[in-house]
Specification:
The structure holds 2 protein chains of 2 kinds.
Chain A (H helix, E strand, L loop, with lengths): L3 H8 L9 H32 L4 H12 L1 H11 L20 H10 L1 H35 L1 H8 L4 E4 L2 E3 L6 H33 L3 H52 L7 H26 L2 H6 L1 H11 L4 E6 L6 H21 L5 E8 L2 E8 L11 H12 L3 E5 L6 E8 L3
Parallel strand pairs in A: 3-4
Antiparallel strand pairs in A: 1-2, 4-5, 5-7, 6-7
Helix pairs in contact in A: 1-8, 2-3, 2-6, 2-8, 4-6, 6-8, 9-10, 12-13, 13-14
Chain B lengths: L2 E5 L3 H13 L3 E6 L2 H11 L3 E5 L9 H12 L5 E5 L4 H8 L9 E5 L6 H12 L3 E3 L1 H9 L12 H11 L4 H8 L3 H15 L7 H12 L6
Parallel strand pairs in B: 1-2, 1-3, 3-4, 4-5, 5-6
Classes of the chains: A alpha+beta, B alpha/beta.
């Protein structure tokens, strides 16, 4: 990856001062200096205060806040980098939808990215800010020098001294100052570009997802693509069965029905055979319909999750109470994930738990679809033992959801499924 | 003799249905393969009854059902029989609870039913005559729910039988024949059912609709 500003500088070093780049660099550096100095002040107060009161509990809390302060600062910096970079850096943090504040904090403190971000924050507050002050001074001095003829003219008859002890007599004589100022500005253009590039590289190094992180992101994406492909394939199979075998069987049973109609009233040995053939066609249709529904539930596509879940509940051998308070339509990936998860959960509960009843509860909270499945069975479900629960967890992981199983021996078994709706 | 407009995208089945209907003396004025053609055919033919598949081109979702609802909004009281591959009650309630006026016959049958030729033709005639007919399989699934807190548990086996036939769109007389009991006892059973389910026993579609809505535990008329 190249640094955009360095790239521009390398391509056309002489034209560089006359592009928008110097202004962008200056905006980046000056805003960075102001923010960095504020950061320095806040961190200094927090650290001194935290260490000073660390014998009290509050001091440790303050130091903990300092430890994670890099996260918001880095988020801000990733945005600010857009002044001089075409693309935003990806966040190195894993998504934690629906997690509580304590588990969020624990996870963040375990992530290396958090500590790299803290490092960047300290670097920014001290080194970049100091360099920023130097640069600001250079820029400010140069601008003043450029303007000396005007200043001399405006302040006359008072004397102006550029070099101590030597008064500048008039605006024309001050043109030497202007030349020096322009030279300074040119220096500020190139120094600003170098400084900006250095900061961008540092930010890249410390703030973006590391290679292994990027690979995980790509892996997740490819798994999501695979899931989509499976979904499309299921859809295609469902459609082929619906348009092909199902229609053929219906037509067959209709033909058999017509034959029966023709033979009505006749005492032919073919009559009971026809009835049997019709029964068999009927059974084949029933089985095919169940199969098709398991492959791709059309009611889910047409009517959404609440209708499809009501249907599942009706067919379940053990009574199910459903309490869904969700919008009729959710994103398709959420709908299918929730549906297949619930299918598996109901099958497990009905087959293995010995439960007498199952309750299903669904809500959307803070952009996360939360599904609770509770049964009053004997408990002891082990996610590691059965392929079913493991498969559910895998499937959920792809859409950045998660599965929490609580199943103490003696029951009850509670499944909590979370799927972010933005997935 | 009924004048029928038929919409079914599977060619084999469409041809079979045309043959079946003409064989028993009905006239298929148009046999079409998608929802748009269906609307045009109904406007042109003014049929006695429409038979349509739920799923049709161009989207292969529920175009046929939606077209049927649109048609009923434009042609007041047009009897429609919907053929479906889905047992899911959501489709039946979509048909019955649509914004269209509740008058005029309505039917929701599984496609398997066309194999039971006599039963299918009977259902078609009852729909054309203004009755509401729901497929027995759909009713069976609805009745199978055993949630203990549902008032359905309070029905006797005989009352359940009567309820299922009621949902199939049979009137008291036909129910009495089917169960070989007197019409008076059917009336008595109905009274008990409506009382136990707390359903308003109004006539026609509303009666079936109320029962369906109750079984699904929701208010479809709202």
């Amino acid at each position: 990856m190249t640094v955009a500003v360095w790239d521009a500088l390398r391509r056309e070093p002489l034209r560089f001062p006359f592009t928008a780049w110097p202004l962008r660099c200056w905006a980046f550096l000056l805003s960075g200096t102001v923010l960095g100095f504020s950061l320095f002040a806040v961190l200094a107060v927090l650290i001194v205060g935290g260490v000073g009161s660390s014998f009290l509990g509050i001091g440790l809390v303050i130091l903990l806040a300092v430890a994670v302060s890099g996260i918001p600062v880095a988020a801000l910096e990733r945005r600010r980098l857009r002044i001089v970079e075409p693309e935003r850096l990806p966040s190195p943090h894993g998504a934690l939808p629906g997690a509580g504040i304590m588990s969020r904090l624990r996870t963040r403190l375990r992530e290396r990215a958090t500590w790299r971000e803290l490092g960047y924050t300290l670097l920014w507050a001290v080194v970049f800010t100091a360099a920023g002050f130097g640069f600001t001074a250079l820029l400010g001095m140069s601008l003043i020098l450029v303007a000396t003829p005007v200043i001399v003219w405006a302040l006359s008859p008072e004397t102006v001294m550029l070099i101590p002890g030597r008064a500048v007599s008039g605006p024309v004589e001050a043109l030497g100052g202007t030349a020096a100022g322009l030279l300074g500005l040119l220096l500020a253009v190139y120094a600003g570009a170098l400084l900006t590039g250095a900061q961008v590289s540092t930010a890249r190094f410390l703030l973006s997802a590391r290679e292994e992180g990027a690979q995980i992101i790509e892996l997740t994406r490819s798994r999501a693509r695979l899931l989509d492909a499976f979904e499309a394939e299921r859809h295609r199979i469902e459609r082929d069965l619906h348009d092909g075998a199902q229609q053929q069987l219906v037509a067959l049973s209709m033909t058999l029905g017509l034959a029966e109609l023709e033979l009505r009233g006749q005492d032919s040995p073919a009559v009971p055979l026809l009835a049997r053939a019709k029964g068999e066609a009927r059974q084949a249709l029933d089985q095919l319909r169940d199969l098709v529904r398991d492959i791709h539930p059309q009611v889910l596509a047409d009517h959404g999750l609440p209708a499809a879940v009501a249907e599942l509940a009706l067919r379940n051998p053990i009574p199910v109470t459903v309490d869904l308070d969700v919008p009729n339509r959710l994103p398709a990936s959420v709908e299918t994930t929730a549906y297949f998860t619930l299918t598996e959960a109901l099958t497990n509960a009905s087959k293995h738990s010995g439960a007498g009843r199952i309750s299903v509860e669904g809500r959307v909270r803070g952009g996360v679809f939360v599904l609770l499945v509770t049964d009053d069975g004997r408990g002891g479900a082990d996610p590691a033992a059965g392929a079913g629960l493991q498969g559910l967890a895998d499937r959920l992981a792809i859409v950045k959801g998660r599965l929490i199983v609580s199943s103490p021996p003696g029951g009850p078994t509670r499944l909590r499924v979370e799927v972010p709706c933005s997935a | 003799m009924l004048r029928v407009v038929l919409a079914e995208d599977a060619v084999l089945l469409r041809a079979g249905l045309v043959e079946l209907l003409s064989r028993v003396g009905h006239k298929v004025t148009s046999a079409v393969g998608d929802a748009g053609e269906l609307a045009r055919a109904v406007d042109a033919d003014q049929p006695d009854v429409v038979i349509t598949d739920v799923r049709m081109p161009p989207g292969f979702r529920d175009e046929g059902l939606k077209a049927a609802l649109d048609l009923r909004a434009r042609h007041r009281g047009l009897p429609v029989l919907v053929l479906s591959q889905y047992v899911a009650t959501a489709y039946a309630t979509q048909l019955l609870g649509g914004a269209a006026p509740a008058e005029g016959g309505l039917g929701y049958l599984l496609k398997d039913r066309v194999g039971e030729v006599a039963e299918f033709l009977d259902a078609l005639e009852r729909v054309a005559g203004g009755a509401t007919v729901i497929d027995p399989e759909v009713i069976r699934v609805l009745l199978r729910q055993q949630t203990a807190d549902r008032p359905l548990q309070r029905l006797t086996p005989r009352e359940r039988e009567v309820l299922a036939l009621m949902a199939e769109g049979l009137n008291n007389h036909s129910i009495a024949q089917r169960l070989t009991i007197t019409e008076a006892s059917v009336v008595k059973h109905c009274g008990n059912i409506f009382m136990k389910l707390d359903v308003d026993p109004t006539e026609g579609n509303r009666r079936v609709l109320a029962v369906l809505a109750h079984l699904r535990g929701e208010d479809v008329t709202a």
